[in-house]
Amino acid sequence: MSNMTLSQKWRIWMPIVSGFSIAYFCKIPANEGALLPQRPPSYVFKFIWPILYIMLGLSWQKDSLNQFGDLMHSTCVFLLCLWIIIYQCQNQKKLGVYIIACTIAVVATCISLHSKPEGKLLLTPLLAWLLIAFQLNWNLIK
């Protein structure tokens, strides 16, 4: 990875830069969903998302020669950012559930079709976290 030029590393940084840029303008309150018993403490979100974004970027970089993998990873980043906008900025919690469901499908597709085993492993925590997010989002609209 040290031999890569800046133009080759953009896939690694795109998820975290995109996600945190959108989140800067559409801040999710620390107490969002705090009444749900299965919700992790708010500090967990600040810890886990940078890790998940970097792992997504590393997976994307490992699959950069695969045109379909490139498309699916970029779609995943788009959907993650779209969820922040729809859920928080637009306050459309119900639509947020559908966006998470689509994101889960995209991540599962990335895992299934990834050209490298380590790329698949890098996406597994994101898939697990999205399943938790889906359940939390679902319970907020009930």
What does the model show?
The structure is a single chain. The protein has 142 residues and is mostly helical. It has helices at 6-25, 42-62, 67-89, 93-113, 117-141. Helix 1 (6-25) runs antiparallel to helix 2 and helix 1 runs parallel beside helix 3. The longest helix has 25 residues, at 117-141. The mean pLDDT is 92.
Q: Estimate the helix proportion, in percent.
A: over 70%
State the total count of DSSP E strands.
Answer: 0
CATH topology of the domain at 68-142: Methane Monooxygenase Hydroxylase, Chain G, domain 1
Regarding CATH, which class of the domain at 68-142? Mainly Alpha
The CATH architecture classification of the domain at 68-142 is Up-down Bundle
Q: Which secondary-structure class do the elements indicate?
A: mainly alpha
General shape: globular
Largest sheet: none
Mean pLDDT: 92
| Separation, N- and C-terminal Cα atoms | 46 Å
CA radius of gyration: 15 Å
Elements, N to C (H/E): HHHHH
* SS strand fraction: under 5%
Total count of helical runs of at least 4 residues: 5
- Unreliably modeled segments: none
